[in-house]
Amino acid sequence: MNDAHLHMVVNHFPIIGTIFGVGILIAGIVLKNNSARNIAYFLFIISAIFAAISMNTGEGAEEIAEKLPGVTDQIIETHEEMAEKFSLIMYFLGGFSLISLLLAVFKKPQEKYVGYFTLLVAIIALYFAQQTGTTGGEIRHTEIRENTTFQNDLISVEKEIKSDDD
After folding, report:
1. 2 three-state secondary structure
2. Where are the alpha helices (DSSP H) in 12-148?
């Protein structure tokens, strides 16, 4: 297994873990369910760990991906910059989740307020998760890139097929 493969295996968990964590934390807050909130905090902590692993495998994946046809330095750089921002937010989210979890375990009243702040950070993380996932996907999935020659070629083929039908 090379770094590119390992990167693709681990890079999805911070995104998916954050999505599930936000949903579970909202449910825990609305339903006043301590277990649900604690599960969400735990998910955020694990997601932050996977974000660190993703960052550590990204450089090796870049070395492999930059040699592939159709992959430009600009596409990789855009993804790398977004991933760095997302990772920083995930580390922050993991830290606040750890504090929230400890406050909950020791039944401290501050957990409620720190939990709300953790939710706010998690919602912000969702935006960066989406951006990071999209820019990462654009590296190999040319069909989701904006203004690519692939899309232009596809449009030309569709027009050709349509004119042949007439």
Report:
1. coil
2. 12-30, 34-65, 73-105, 111-140
How many other C-beta atoms can be found within 10 angstroms of the C-beta atom of residue 90? Answer: 32
Q: Amino acid identity, residue 112?
A: K
By C-alpha distance, which of 93, 76, 107, 6 is closest to 41? 93
Distance CA 46, CA 94 (A): 8
* Measured distance CA(48)–CA(54) in Å, rounded: 10
How much is the average pLDDT of 113-124?
A: 97
Residues in the chain: 166
Q: How confident is the model at residue 28 (pLDDT cuts 50, 70, 90)?
A: very high
| Side chain identity at residue 32, one-letter code | K
Nearest to 50 by CA among 26, 24, 80, 16: 16
